[in-house]
């Protein structure tokens, strides 16, 4: 796909722009509500170090939001091991909205069904190693600086604070998890860590680079280093396929067919196995929390270049 991509990427982006009108910017986190609903941009990152982009990507950052869930999962799998992690969080899709509490109550023993829903992500964030919130977020940031090659990567304090003030549904999930011994730390500390994690800021090319490392089974083509063990990258990609687009993951697998993870800021990170990483940013969301135009753009790209794994 690479040789013709530059021009065609612009064309596909232009064709997808109209779909930005079909969605709404997330406003339940006030810091996200200021995003431009008409924005759409994309970057495709290749193993040889090239990166093609379309739309405005310079100086335009987005917060990872739920995309961060894949990265905390990778880090805790590396630090704690599969046995420890999956004793506390499951491996199955839910079919429910990302912030739903319902399965926590109906399944016994109470254990979040997977690491991509908020309950599961809170359980995974709880497993981040470190003496305090600052050490734990710093560890995650260092991991992301290594993957993106950006030593200045950090989180957006304003958006973290804005989520902290409004995250009562997540607080409820955390208290529920604490009652059932899935977590055992102070809920406010966990919320502080989780909101900072969700507010980590990247550019769209950095998002594509993260996707590329997963696409290459955890290897960073720039340094040649195995930054994520192959097995861990494989587990993360599997969750991206089964739960990465929440209760639209099955439809996305049919329409696009590559491992991908979305966030309510409007970002989508996709990993095309062995080929490339893709970052998309389109803040207007559908009713399930996925970027409407971002989805359409990936669908067009996948169909044009036959990217589906299935
Ligand atoms: O926990 C939240 O509600 C947000 N920080 C992240 C949710 C999210 O990105 C779900 N995505 N589709």
From TrEMBL:
Substrates-to-products reaction catalysed: L-glutamine + H2O = L-glutamate + NH4(+)
The UniProt record lists the keyword Acetylation:
yes
Binding of substrate, residues = 66, 118, 163, 170, 194, 246, 264
What InterPro entries does UniProt report for this protein, alphabetically? Beta-lactam/transpept-like, Glutaminase
Keywords carried by this UniProt record: Acetylation, Hydrolase
The source's superkingdom equals Bacteria
What SUPFAM superfamilies does this protein map onto?
beta-lactamase/transpeptidase-like (SSF56601)
- Asked whether the UniProt record includes Hydrolase among its keywords, one would answer yes
Enzyme Commission identifier(s): 3.5.1.2
Recorded hits in Pfam families, A to Z, give: Glutaminase (PF04960)
Q: What class of enzyme is it?
A: hydrolase
Which GO MF terms are attached to this record? glutaminase activity
**Whom does it interact with, and what assembly results?**
Homotetramer.
Q: Of which family is this protein a member? A: Belongs to the glutaminase family.
Instruction: Identify this protein by name.
Output: Glutaminase
Gene giving rise to this polypeptide: glsA
């Amino acid at each position: 796909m690479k040789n013709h991509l530059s021009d065609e990427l612009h064309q596909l982006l232009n064709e997808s722009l109209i779909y930005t009108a079909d969605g709404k910017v997330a406003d339940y986190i006030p810091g996200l509500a200021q995003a431009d609903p008409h924005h759409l941009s994309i970057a495709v990152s290749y193993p040889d170090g090239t990166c093609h982009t379309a739309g405005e990507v310079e100086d335009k950052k987005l917060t990872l939001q739920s995309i961060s869930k894949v990265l905390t999962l990778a880090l805790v799998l590396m630090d704690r091991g599969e046995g420890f992690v999956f004793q506390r969080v499951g491996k199955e899709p839910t079919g429910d909205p990302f912030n739903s509490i319902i399965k926590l109550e109906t399944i016994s023993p109470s254990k979040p069904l997977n690491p991509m829903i908020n309950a599961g992500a809170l359980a995974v964030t709880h497993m981040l190693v470190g003496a305090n919130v600052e050490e734990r977020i710093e560890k995650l940031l260092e991991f992301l600086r290594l993957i993106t090659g950006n030593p200045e990567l950090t989180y957006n304090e304003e958006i973290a604070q804005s989520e902290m003030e409004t995250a009562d549904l997540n607080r409820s999930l955390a208290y529920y998890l604490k009652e059932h011994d899935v977590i055992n730390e102070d809920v406010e500390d966990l919320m502080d860590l989780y909101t900072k994690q969700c507010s980590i800021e990247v550019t769209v090319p950095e998002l594509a680079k993260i996707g590329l490392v997963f696409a290459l089974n955890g290897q960073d083509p720039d340094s040649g280093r195995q930054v994520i063990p192959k097995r861990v990258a494989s587990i993360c990609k599997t969750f991206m396929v089964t739960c990465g687009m929440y209760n639209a993951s099955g439809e996305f697998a049919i329409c696009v067919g590559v491992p991908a993870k979305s966030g309510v800021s409007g970002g989508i990170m996709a990993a095309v196995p062995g080929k490339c990483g893709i970052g998309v940013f389109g803040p207007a969301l559908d009713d399930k929390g996925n970027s409407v135009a971002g989805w359409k753009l990936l669908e067009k790209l996948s169909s044009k270049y036959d990217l589906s794994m299935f």
